[in-house]
Amino acid sequence: MTKVSVSVVMAEYNTNTDDLKTAIKSILDQTYRDFEFIIVDDGGKNDLEVIKKELGNDKRIRIIKNPCNKGLVYSLNNAITHAKGEYLVRMDTDDIAEKDRIQKQHNFIQKHPEYSVVASRVIEFSDKKELGILGKAGEKTRKDIMRGDVPVHPSVIMKKSDILATGGYKDYTRAEDLSLWCDLMLARKKIYVMNDVLLHYRVNPNDYKKRTLRHRGGELKARIHYYPLLGAGLIEYMRIAKSIIAGLAPVWIIRYYRNRKLIGGK
What we know:
Number of helices: 11
Distance between the termini: 47 Å
Radius of gyration: 18 Å
Mean pLDDT: 90
Low-confidence stretches: none
Strand content: 15-25%
Order of helices and strands: EHEHEHEEHEEEHEHHEHHHH
């Protein structure tokens, strides 16, 4: 493939096939066309070559196979290693991008080169309904990141050079994005969230089970590692205690609290 401006990166492992096709199609249907679409096959049951053919065998799709199931962090770093674009667009396998997502984000990050990461706000939804809008617009500070005001990971466009300079994704389970934002803050890079809502962010019932304490080890390790480096104060350290308490709560409480946090949520 010739040089492109944008590399869309996705890591796939056993996603519901219909959701996966919808997510891929939402990228292929973008108004912005100058991109490659790297999908890493992390050893799951889906045949990505067959799905690619079913969706028109678009030449922009590049499928990279891991030698075996290696996990999200390895897969994303693998995709970045193969990426030819100046910018990286993250996309998850069950989300849905608005048709003008890449166009708007690409325009913004080119007009504002001071930012290493530009995210959008997102509509959080389940199979049954839309739950509300997630994300707060504006530039993010160290305190914002430590207090949970962070970009929604699959909504971002990023400068590849800056991501590589920080060492890429670190192996913090379910917190690889948090560690990346922290690394960028430590490197004095800037992060911004656009006011535009450019992604439908799917949350299934099983996702809430992953918010329990036994699934929060990576997040807690990341916070304990990065907070002293970022100059955390009492309020920021209270975030660690809050995460532990939330992890001990029943799933229904986690779901209720999550829905209450959504901007515009009921």
